[in-house]
Amino acid sequence: MAANTTAKKTATEPTRCECSRYSVLVNLRDVDGDLAWDEELTTGCTATTARVFAPGHDAKLKSALIRWGAEGHDVIRDGDGVNTTADAATHASKFIFANMVTAGIKRAEDKAAAKATRAAARAAKKVAAKVEPPVEVTAKVGRWDRVGTVQGDTFTYTDGMGATKTTTKFRLI
User: Fold this and answer.
1) Tens digits of per-residue pLDDT, 104-142?
2) Contact 69/61 with Cβ under 8 angstroms?
3) DSSP states along 36-82
4) How far is Cα of residue 49 from the mean position of the Cα atoms in its chain?
5) End-to-end Cα distance, the chain
6) What is the pTM of this model?
7) Among 134, 164, 159, which Cα is nearest to 144's?
């Protein structure tokens, strides 16, 4: 009979899950010498575990870091009384999923930029739609009085033969 060569596993003391150590203070500001904030965002984790993460909580932290990084928040890590503040990608660099956090933040920022560009284009389109069509006016072109429209310094009119012409030499009547 072979001897049992595996060492006995020692029971480790359960500690709080790593994802519960991260938070973000939203709208941090100085109020009469004291720091105040509107809201504290966390992962919502209250689990304890003998490992670094409770099952599935690495993904919970990854998604929170991506969301907070895309919003531009400084992330705080509570290291048992010692708080460390850095951006989301810096905190993620300690874990194997760091490249996914960095890529997710970039993807979210690109998506927000594209959305802003589309919104600006829609707003410009609405402004362009509100511009009134040019009003017909009478102007003296050479010795003839012509009816047409003025846009900037150009007068567009129809001559006696029915051809559309433009000129910058005219006088409004």
Assistant:
1) 999 999 999 999 999 999 888 887 666 667 788 999 998
2) no
3) E-SEEEE-----EESSSS-TTHHHHHHHHHHHHHHHTPPEEEE-SS-
4) 35
5) 117
6) 0.63
7) 159
